[in-house]
């Protein structure tokens, strides 16, 4: 198994807790950051722009994605241009459709052609990958976020789909594939093995990086000790 330092896939931290983000910023293996409205709500963020500008002041030199939250094309574009102006390391997250299932491809093409760096998010089927890849063609650096974890949640193996997504995107060197919403640390190594460019991960997964290369017999013994200690602490008797 590769060590973390040997991985080619770039690990981006996914979250909106400032203290955690700054802790991860100090780790050389964290190559960028992503956020979304759900993570911001979970972190208790109430003033979007103030939070974003504060984070960008603390982290000025790694890619950070901030998402629009409007649901109509005109307002999405206004928000996207405002967010893009916050800093040169900003990528604007655009959902692949709005809540009415209307494609964002036209807006993505328009923004990309005007030089806005984008991270198109919430993508699952390959048809969406193809549509968005075509819309981003010829533009600045861009990311296509395929939610592999959510694909797996439906009982479908995401690996063949992620490989196919890479093939769809291969003619476009400005585009990077993100393995989004991983469910376990193993996904980092799977993403690396197929040549995926980026994987996002939340703190609960990133904390497991300390287990990489752990001897399985030792880990087994630690598990047995945990069960024994918890039984004792609970005062169980039969």
What distinguishing features does this structure have?
eight-stranded parallel β-barrel, alpha/beta, TIM Barrel, 11 helices, 45% helix, 18% strand, 238 residues, single chain, globular
SSE topology sketch:
Layout: E1 10-14, H1 18-25, E2 30-34, H2 37-42, H3 48-58, E3 64-67, H4 73-84, E4 90-95, H5 105-113, E5 118-123, H6 126-136, E6 142-147, H7 148-153, H8 158-169, E7 175-180, H9 186-194, E8 198-201, H10 203-206, H11 216-234
Parallel strand pairs: 1-2, 1-8, 2-3, 3-4, 4-5, 5-6, 6-7, 7-8
Helix pairs in contact: 5-6, 6-8
Describe the protein in words:
This protein has helices spanning 18-25, 37-42, 48-58, 73-84, 105-113, 126-136, 148-153, 158-169, 186-194, 203-206, 216-234; strands at residues 10-14, 30-34, 64-67, 90-95, 118-123, 142-147, 175-180, 198-201. With 238 residues, the protein is an alpha/beta fold. The chain has a single domain, classed as Alpha-Beta Barrel (TIM Barrel). Strands 1-2-3-4-5-6-7-8 form an eight-stranded parallel β-barrel, surrounded by six helices. Helix 6 (126-136) packs parallel to helix 8 (158-169).
